[in-house]
Amino acid sequence: MIYGFYGGKIMPMHKGHLYCIDTAAKQCDHVTVIMFVGGNDEMLIRKTDPSPIVSIASRRKQLERVCALYPNVECHIVDVTELKLPDGTEDWDAETPLVRHFVPHMDYVYSSEPSYGAYFARAYPEATHIIVDAERRTYPISGTLIRAMQELEEQKQWMV
């Protein structure tokens, strides 16, 4: 069996996430997708953007719908609210055992971020980091861009 792992905030689910999950599902016998909730970035975003698309319930529903498309993909939600370094930033090393609870072994870890490579090599030394569409050429979208576009649309209602 070939095992894969993909994780992220998923704020909100978009075609880039789907593309990464689809890639993993095609390359692995079993894929575990984890949505992390309660991290610093998420808390900052949710303070300034109360829209439903970034709520945990909405993101969970989106993730579950996507994972249900694949018989070899399972999804989990992991709360990292309490896992902070002294400076208040996220402690990814403290998150690793939570991931390992659901993914004790992985052959591949998927992301679209080359900068995650050093962490993945340390946290999941047995896994090869598969970078999917880092340049966002296949799907030129990100959660940040979606949230910015939504904010512009909301602002238009006040324009004359």
Helices, strands, pairings?
Blueprint: E1 3-8, H1 15-27, E2 30-37, H2 40-48, H3 56-67, E3 73-79, H4 92-102, E4 108-111, H5 117-123, E5 128-131, H6 143-156
Parallel strand pairs: 1-2, 1-4, 2-3, 4-5
The portion of residues assigned to helices is 40-55%
Q: What is the H/E order?
A: EHEHHEHEHEH
- Just name the CATH architecture: 3-Layer(aba) Sandwich
Per the CATH scheme, the topology name is Rossmann fold
- Which descriptor suits the 3D outline? globular
Number of domains: 1
DSSP helix count? 6
Spans of at least 5 consecutive residues whose pLDDT stays below 50 are none
| SS-derived structural category | alpha/beta
Mean pLDDT: 88
CATH superfamily: HUPs
Strand order of the largest sheet: 3-2-1-4-5
What's the CATH C level? Alpha Beta
Number of strands: 5
Share of residues in strands: 15-25%
Largest sheet: 5 strands, parallel
> How large, in whole angstroms, is the Cα Rg?
16 Å
The termini sit apart by 59 Å
